[in-house]
Amino acid sequence: MFHRVLVANRGEIALRIIEACRELSMEAIAVFSEADRDMPYLRLADQSICIGPAAAGRSYANEAAILSAAELTGAQAIHPGYGFLSENPEFVELCEQQGLCFIGPSQHTMKLLGDKAAAREAVAAVGVPVLPGGLLEEGGEPPDEMAERIGYPVLVKAVFGGGGRGMRWVDTPADLLAAIAAAKAEAKAATGSGKLYMEKALRDPRHVEVQILADQHGTIVHLGERECSVQRRHQKLIEESPAPRLSDETRSALHEAALAASAAVDYANAGTVEFVLGDDERFHFIEMNARIQVEHPVSETVTGIQLIKEQLRVATGEPLGYDQDAVRIRGHAIECRINAEDPQRGFMPSSGTVTICELPGGPGVRVDSHLYSGLQMTPHYDSLLAKLVTHGRDREEARIRMYTALQRFRVDGVATTCGVAQRIISDAEFRDARITTSFLAKRLP
Q1: Residue 291 bears catalytic tag
Q2: Which one is catalytic: 16, 120, 291, 313?
């Protein structure tokens, strides 16, 4: 086991990592920006160190600052959480050069998965279904011919990056060249690369992902799947596990495809394989996330497996110590992301000083948050206030518990998405699990 782990993140995920380190008798070194120096979770760490000013590029995403903090504190490993440096293969390489263990997949695997076109090829080679498409490159197949071959509508997507950046939907040939130019410019601004690929677009699909966990000895297990179709601007708002309204055959096939994809890229540690599904339940691989996901608590809740602790364990070289038969899905879990955003202003981030009026609790309720009265919500970081998770014997019990929990989540000083989340989970189509990626735009425009 490691003796000392540097937590290269902030907010609720930093708190979760600190807690996991403590449970494994590891020392946790917290880093913080000048804007975060009053965060209460810093007191739970064995040591904390300031790494720069508020701007993420000069603190949490500053490779030199993170590595210097690790050297100064004698850390043996770095846990990146999600966001910031969590999917940066160059940072993984720097960690390896400094003799530090990066808690995540290898540099080779991360680099492969960061290239979405290469990842498609790797998983397709082992029989995982992918959507028709190809790389857009000079000297290759002309874009108009490729689009005609795979059939409109098509998606033009950035090879590197994610979160919807560098992505354009194209319905007709007349829109193709403009969409390519716009996607290329956006991708280059966001990632430094304007490399693009094209794939067939599914109208109104579902977005379902499979949580996997793999050790360094070849054992890979899945922790079931998550329904992630409730989204806005390609950002997930509500996730649940198991995914509702799936046949047993499709569910099993999804799991097998995720395991095959993970093995194909020599994956170790925690990761997520993402798929889109059509009305006929035919599914296709879209990407694999080489990190812990924001929505991992729903998988923890239904399996009882603590993913952050497992990440730390397998990074030391320990075997998982169990196989797929030992993983059991119990009941149903739903997670709502509570963001400091104003739905009346197009979900613009809401800044201010938070005052806690009431937080939910009780049977089957979990709140993952770094919240405290006096917290300053600023534009420097993402707007996530908390992840609210409820668990029930079945989906309906979890849904009702979520409604009550959202009523009890009351803070002043900033606008939140609690009201929107309540409207979503009480919507008739959500109750009946008739949800796709267009659900939010159609039901709550």
Answers
A1: yes
A2: 291
